[in-house]
Amino acid sequence: MLVTFLIIATFTFFLMQTLPGSPFNDERLSESQKEKLYERYGLDEPAPIQYVKYMANIFKGDLGVSFQYDGRPVSDIIGERIGASAVLGAQSLIIGCMVGIILGIIAAIRHNTAIDYAAMVIAVIGLSVPNFVFAGLLQYWVGVKLQWLPVAFWEGFEYSILPTISLSVFVIATIARFMRTEMLEVLGQDYIVTAKAKGLNQFAVVMRHGLRNAAIPIITILGPMTVSLLTGTLVIEKIFSVPGLGEQFVKSIMTNDFPVIMGVTLFYSILFIGVVLIVDILYGVIDPRIRLSGGTKQ
Amino acid sequence: MEKILEVKDLQVSFDTYAGEVKAVRGVSFHLNKGEILAIVGESGSGKSVTSKSLMKLIPNPPGRITGGEIIFKGDNLVNFTEKQMQKIRGSDISMIFQDPMTSLNPTMTVGNQIIESIIKHQKQSKHQAKDKAIKLLEMVGIPNPEKRLSSYPHQFSGGMRQRVVIAMAISCNPKVLIADEPTTALDVTIQAQILELLRNLQKRMETSIIFITHDLGVVANIADRVAVMYAGKIVEIGKVEEIFYNPQHPYTWGLLGAMPNLNEDSEELITIPGSPPNLLNPPNGDAFAERNQYAMKIDYQLEPPMFKVSETHFAATWLLHEKSPKIIPPDTLRKHRQVSAIEKQKDRLAKKREKLLEVKNLKQYFSSGSNVVKAVDGINFDIYKGETFGLVGESGCGKSTTGRTIIRLYEATDGEVLYNNVNIHDKRVSGDLQKLNQNIQMIFQDPYSSLNPRQTVADIIAEGMDIHGLASSKKERLGKVYELLETVGLNREHANRYPHEFSGGQRQRIGIARALAVDPEFIIADEPISALDVSIQAQVVNLMKKLQKEKGLTYLFIAHDLSMVKYISDRIGVMYKGKIVELAESEELYQNPLHAYTKSLLSAIPLPDPDTEKIRKRIKFDESLFWNGEGEEPILREVKEGHWVSCTEQDFQSIKKQFNAV
User: Fold this and answer.
1) Of the candidates B515, B577, B574, B579, the residue with the CA atom closest to the CA atom of residue B548
2) Which domain holds residue A7?
3) Yes or no, beta carbons of B156 and A298 under 8 Å apart
4) pLDDT, tens digit (0-9, with 9 covering 90-100), for A198-234
């Protein structure tokens, strides 16, 4: 995992180096002023030395200082911005999973009926229409026309509803489609017939015997799902003017604020590595066959 | 006798894109209290559908019960709602399924799976239910039941899982237990244990059992009465003795004749020509008429009613009509021709002069991490030209691995395989490997997955010829394919079709034709018949025997079905845990088994003969007696000419003494 992290850090660092332009490309600045700035931020040194310094600092927990906010530490910026993004991401993931699973199960049980088809049409729309379109539509109808919910900013729970919905549409659609396929397969398994032969009602059969088995493959897609949620936040936060990490990220790219870009990228990769780890652990929790301690065969 | 369940004119259909498939077409029978009724039939005969209909577990759609009555406790279950059925399922009628590997929920502890129905039907607390589950596990013979309660299914072996399934099924003392091929997926010795368990439980709990199977040996072992199903109908029903000793329906004759009998010797198995009818358009009249050599004109026009043979014995064949000619069933059925064992042995000794294949100390280990699985652990045997060498053993004993290692599908860990005195596992002869592949061919177990579904039959068969450059022109190639198809009993027209258009038996014939295409000398047949129905098995075995005679082929026949192996093989090697424990002429092996494992294996095979089954005693093999790496390692020693047993020096002397005493 550490290796993964190091590779990502190195890779982003040199990618930054190859980028054209510099944060201080302002015509109003004189050459000597620029030189001073370069010196101050350590940009006058050759790239390998910058790299070594940067990597050494990372392990001290120091991600450098921002260019655009005049020397504010990057870790401060991330810390300040992470709150809103985390709330938004977690809400979308939880709501998306719950609604998606329920929708998928209903579609599987009512296989080949109008309900099934309706659910799948919704899922396809959710997958194919980009989330900023939903965001725009929601802002217009719910926010502007109906005046039910605020269209932008971040000043309380009601401000998070619209962005959460726009973000979770994709999650719902993906999970629902997966759940339906998996559930249909599981429902055709012998142990489901066994459960029915015990006289259990359909709810018990599906919930007790079906769900857990169908959920195993779902967990696999949770990893990539989180990533797409992250990229989703970049745009959605911008649209709803949420002061989150994604919004900051976009702003930093616009201003060539390398340390912030680097810092946020590294933060995202740590997050992703963490998610993958959690997914692996969840596997063991849900599927006893790959539980390490359960590996004793008689 | 009290009738516990009565089925009247049951009809079940499945809606498919091609139309309505009538899987069960008017089945009537009853089940007495405390009896075991066996329903036998080949795949597609409707026996499983019938049993699932009794609990209304037919997936709907596409399946539906289109007519008839199922009378249980005075109610007609056909009219019951889903809610009412849920009360019956698991409490009054319960079911055991075929494959214990898939019929348990892999993500739930076995304890929870057992107490589920106890809580549901007997309204007990979780604690009480748990106590009951422990008792149940004890009853079905699972050691340490308290501990095992919290184990997951994958922590049990196949036989143990089936015991768990049985514990689940009997948890609420059901009146009727439906067992749908409960032992088909298990090894013979495990099968014998499960059958014993079911019989004991049935006596203790006075349950009635409907036992569905295709294995007549199992029927003879366990059943009180038997119903024979064919094409969605019961064609014959009666007491087990009546069915086995006085069968009336030609289909029953065929089924009984198709099973090789361990105690007797016959030249050719009775086969039922053709394959079962397509139930999309069931034929008029008797569905069996087309495959019936005694069919009369009326058989093609009118369905035969059930004729009464005795108070308990009925059969649906026009042969029983007073106007029809009296036909005596084929005598091979009961009086097999006795070729004296000595004569046969002579015949074989004459054959076995030239060694074709020598396997010397062959080892095949598989390692996964630090775990080393010794699949084949130092085995030695020779195969002589023109003979059939049988390799038997239970699943996991390494018999298939042996076959594959010989043909170098795996690189052997150690040892030599000499084919015509050339070591095939020598890297230096790799160049000759192609030549070798032409001489040694393989027939695989599963006729469904061993044929490429995207290739025509002609291409499948001719692929080997193309590789070895055996056909110089397209015409010659096609001519050879036609010839091969006819050799294995198929038609020329089949050449341009795809595998999915064929039945299992036909596919296995294609597999044989493919193996024959390159004119091999030696064929390794890895369980070639175990995926086939009884009557089809006999067809394929007869074909293999015929080809051997005509082409002078040598076979290595790998199987777990001991009666078939005995029937086809000249010599047999018994494998256990990667080693050969006994090797002898097949007659000698069955008459005079010496190794404890061979004895237990032979005693576990159910024979299609109710009388012997009733008095049979099973010999148990104590695994702990098997060499565990301490003390003197038993090795194969020749105790008698051609009879080798794995034993220690001490055992060897005592066996010798016994022989001398006789």
Assistant:
1) B515
2) 2-59
3) yes
4) 888 888 899 889 998 898 888 888 888 887 887 788 8
